[in-house]
Design brief:
- The complex is a heterodimer.
- By secondary structure, chain A is of the alpha/beta class.
- Helix content of chain A is 35%, strand content 17%.
- Among the domains of chain A are: 36 residues; 118 residues, D-Maltodextrin-Binding Protein, domain 2.
- The termini of chain A are far apart.
- In chain A, 38% of the residues are buried.
- Classes of the chains: A alpha/beta, B mainly alpha.
Chain lengths: 322, 45
């Protein structure tokens, strides 16, 4: 009797241990294994090696115009999207006095004339007056509303373009989707890769934070079709989205595959000639009525042959032929 | 094993399990906040 009781007690303890072990293994397999970054610690704010794009450090990743005239007087504070850092780091290195860029261990100093936040932070900062020029993709409706609510009108000057791309794990056999299929995935009408010629596995349609440049690009692509929140992302095979150069140039990420859209691969050529269907503009944005003449001078430089060459050399598509 | 001993062991095992699981989940959440969508998809086999 006592022996049977002991066996039952040990069985209950073993069962509890097994339940927790199973739970922990599930958390590791479905979650932690997927979010372990191999980028250097401390530089993962956007998973971009920010140290590769600090102006005036001799970085080989920054392309700048060595002979360009430096701005004088009141230097405008510049900020922008993470995906566009190489471009505006090149502008800064070309026309900003080196002493105006102040980088500390935890990021750019508040008094620095170059900042590096992200699309959401940049749009907030230009409305709040903490930035004078931002380099970003188009604003979201919420960002435009925030500007309007604060009595700020934004001027947008297109200085380049890049492709909005969809990515899957490199093991996913699907390589090509149509825009309607993308809309079907993000509206929840298409839920399994089998429907798209892939394996019989659910589609984990991943999203970005609201207000990020790529989430805004998705919202614009979807038009009036509502984006369905996805609560099953842990169990399927993923699809996500970003901007082309962020994937191919900045992260240099192995393990992902950029999908063709309507049979067109996003290349410099197909973006420039308009055949890739979801290219997006890159804009220099400033406050309407800006008094600092250096804001206009900086944007003129971005549109000059030297500036457009920086756009091209940095991996994006210029708006004017170089 | 006395009932009291059994219950104490069971409570300790349960507490340890909850602690480890919670720590693992918090660790994962922090990693998730710092990783890009691109890198996550690359890891997602």
């Amino acid at each position: 009797m006592d022996k049977n009781k002991l066996v039952r007690q040990l069985g209950v303890i073993a069962l509890v241990i097994l339940i927790f072990a199973g739970l922990d293994m599930g958390i590791y397999h479905f979650f932690i294994k997927r979010v372990i970054s191999h980028h250097s610690p401390g530089m993962q704010k956007m998973s971009v090696e920010v140290s590769n794009y600090v102006p005036f450090t001799g970085s080989q990743n920054i392309f700048s115009a060595k002979d360009a005239a430096k701005l004088e007087g009141e230097i405008p504070t510049i900020d922008g999207a993470a995906a566009l850092l190489p471009m505006y780091a090149g502008f800064v290195e070309s026309i900003y006095p080196s002493e105006t860029v102040i980088l500390k261990a935890d990021g750019y100093a508040p008094e620095s004339k170059m900042h590096y936040t992200n699309t959401r932070g940049a749009y907030k900062d230009i409305v709040d007056g903490k930035a004078d020029i931002i380099i970003c993709a188009q604003p979201s409706d919420e960002q435009l509303k925030y500007a309007k609510d604060n009595g700020v009108e934004l001027e947008m000057v297109q200085i380049g373009s890049d492709a909005f791309v969809f990515i899957v794990n490199e093991t996913n056999p699907v390589s090509d989707l149509t825009i309607d299929q993308i809309r079907g995935i993000y509206s929840g009408k298409i839920t399994n890769w089998k429907e798209l010629g892939g394996k019989n596995i659910p589609i984990a349609a991943m999203h970005r934070n609201k207000g990020s440049g790529s989430q805004t690009a998705l919202e614009k692509l979807m038009g009036n079709e509502p984006i369905k929140p996805d609560y099953t992302t842990l169990f399927g095979s993923p699809i996500g989205f970003s901007f082309r150069y962020y994937v191919t140039g900045m992260l240099g990420e192995g393990g992902v595959k950029i999908l063709k859209i309507n049979g067109i691969e996003p290349t410099v050529q197909t973006i420039a000639d308009g055949s890739y269907p979801v290219a997006g503009g890159v804009y220099a944005i400033y406050r309407k009525g800006e008094k600092n003449e250096n804001v206009r001078k900086a944007i003129d430089f971005m549109l000059s042959p030297e500036g457009q060459k920086i756009v091209e050399q940095s991996g994006y598509i210029p708006v004017k032929s170089v | 094993m006395k009932d009291k001993t059994f219950l104490i062991i069971l409570a300790l095992v349960t507490l340890a399990g909850i602690g480890i699981t919670t720590a693992l989940a918090i660790h994962g959440y922090r990693l998730w906040q710092s990783i890009s969508i691109v890198e996550m998809i690359a890891n997602w086999r």
